[in-house]
Write a structure and sequence with these properties.
By secondary structure, the protein is of the alpha/beta class. The chain has 3 domains: 2-152 and 277-340, FAD/NAD(P)-binding domain (3-Layer(bba) Sandwich); 165-274, FAD/NAD(P)-binding domain (3-Layer(bba) Sandwich), CATH 3.50.50.60; 364-468, FAD/NAD-linked reductase, C-terminal dimerisation domain (Enolase-like, domain 1, 2-Layer Sandwich), CATH 3.30.390.30. 31% of the residues lie in helices and 26% in strands. The protein contains 13 helices and 24 strands. Helix 3 packs antiparallel against helix 4 (81-105) and helix 3 runs parallel beside helix 6. It is globular and about 65 Å long. The relative contact order is 0.11.
């Protein structure tokens, strides 16, 4: 066992923790990073990255079945499911190795084990979460950042057994492709899995307790996606409560409607994707002034808790549970520490949650930033709304990707961009244009007088802005 003294120690090596470690090192701090499993956290190993690798395979498979529209043909189209899974895992492995390199490059000392607060400014690192397991190291640090992430949420009767009822981890590494599947939960995770398996030929039913799928998105987006999914053959059940009965070779999913009627669906497998909950247990925070509410560590705008020298970032603190939000909080946290200690020349800007983009990588893709139309109205804004469909864009037609639209919402008085909502090919790439504009507080006038390259899908962003003032050119 070794003793180590650092300026900043971070517990959790996901996209919040490892980014915070790199930025702290850049600012001249001696940094320790404690990670119990794999650098990159859930995002890189079991979330954002490997799911996108799977979705890329399903997208290609889908396109191969529609080659005739491009004047192409192919015979005996098939897939090797084992190779698809292997590719997904190899993508994650490659990136994990890349983060290890970044830690060495930035002189961040990595401790592989479970980190737990062990007094003021102290961390005990053990082989496992069991307090009686072997102690690997004792760390002393002036500042300690918790970046312990979150785990899949479960409800009574919907627990994962990873045999018939899958969590997201098993859904990414199944032994075989099921013929029939129910996905419970239509947020980003559930929708992506439903889209992946449907495009691979599985009979999929997507179940949602609320009155629409993708419930955090604009209502127009939700309605469009439901119609599009159903056209693809994906079955959707909303406004129902799900329960499960396990049989020997199948699972019965009971869907109870608001009127009390129950529909039974028999399938091979079920994926439960009903949200996440912060990893706040067994961190040694008992006896500190750190507040935890509903499995979320409470912080101020600079990620500081009520206990001096203790901070928290990422999924363990609050929604939205997004990797890019965690990374940005990590940077804000360490830059503010440096600012207060005279090592950084300005105080960072706190996160504005309305400026955080959200992306869902189903087919077609969904992306958004800011307020929905309903939320803007609830807040009392007088708004003007612009829309532009994919079918009106030359590049989209040339690509054979005409499903989708772009919607913009502006303050009618000031021209401020309040929200942008997009459905279609590559919108998860294009949304950043609106995010930059919103962060820079650009107005509709600024967007209107920006030149967009032709031919590109991004021209639709311009047209949607123009349409808010009834000036759209191509539709």
């Amino acid at each position: 066992m070794t003793e180590n003294k650092f300026d900043i120690a971070i517990i959790g090596g996901g996209p919040g923790g490892y980014v915070a470690a790199i930025r702290a090192s850049q600012l001249g701090y001696r940094v320790a990073l404690v990670e119990r499993e794999h650098l990159g956290g859930i995002c890189l190993n079991w979330g954002c990255i490997p799911t996108k690798a799977l979705l890329r395979s399903s997208e290609i498979y889908h396109l191969m079945h529609n080659l005739d529209q491009f004047g192409l043909s192919a015979e005996n189209i098939k897939f090797d499911f084992k190779k698809i899974i292997e590719r997904s895992r190899n993508v994650s492995k490659k990136l994990t190795e890349g983060i290890k390199h970044l830690m060495k490059k930035n002189k961040v000392e990595v401790f592989n084990g479970y980190g737990k607060l062990n007094g003021v400014g102290k961390i005990s690192v053990r082989e496992s979460g069991d307090r009686d397991s072997k102690r690997i190291a004792d760390i002393e640090s002036r500042h300690i950042i918790f970046a312990t992430g979150a785990r899949a949420k479960t409800f009574p009767g919907l627990e994962h057994d990873e045999q018939q009822v899958w969590s997201y981890k098993k859904a990414m590494t199944p032994d075989a492709m099921p013929k029939t599947l129910v996905v419970i939960g239509s947020g980003a995770i559930g929708t992506e899995f439903a889209s992946f398996y449907k495009n691979m030929g599985v009979d999929v039913t997507l179940v949602e307790a609320m009155d629409r799928i993708l419930p955090v998105e604009d209502k127009e987006v939700s309605a469009f996606m439901q119609k599009t999914f159903e056209k693809q053959g994906l079955k959707i059940k909303t406004n129902v409560q799900a329960s499960i009965e396990k049989g020997k070779d199948e699972v019965t999913v009971n869907l109870k409607a608001k009127d009390g009627t129950i529909e039974k669906i028999k399938v091979e497998k079920v994926i439960v994707a009903v949200g996440v909950m912060g990893n706040t247990e067994n961190l040694g925070l008992e006896g500190t002034r750190v507040k935890i509410e509903r499995n979320q560590i409470q912080i101020d705008e600079f990620c500081k808790t009520d206990e001096d020298g203790i901070y928290a970032i990422g999924d363990v603190v609050s929604a939205p549970w997004l990797a890019h939000k965690a990374s940005h909080e990590g940077i804000i946290c360490v830059e503010n520490i440096a600012y207060l200690e005279g090592k950084f020349d300005h105080q960072p800007h706190p996160i504005v949650k309305e400026n955080i983009p959200g992306c869902t990588y189903c087919y077609p893709q969904v992306a958004s930033v800011g307020l929905t139309e309903d939320k803007a109205k609830e807040k009392g804004y007088s708004i003007k709304v612009g829309r532009f469909p994919y079918i009106g864009n030359g590049k989209a037609i040339a690509m054979g990707e005409t499903e989708g639209f772009i919607k913009t919402i502006f303050d009618a008085q000031t021209g401020e961009l309040l929200g942008a909502h997009m459905v279609g090919s590559e919108v998860t790439e294009m949304i950043q244009g609106y995010v930059v504009g919103k962060t820079a507080e650009l107005t509709n006038y600024d967007f209107m007088h920006t030149i967009f390259a032709h031919p590109t899908l991004s021209e639709m962003m311009h047209e949607a802005v123009l349409d808010a003032d009834k000036q759209a050119i191509h539709f």
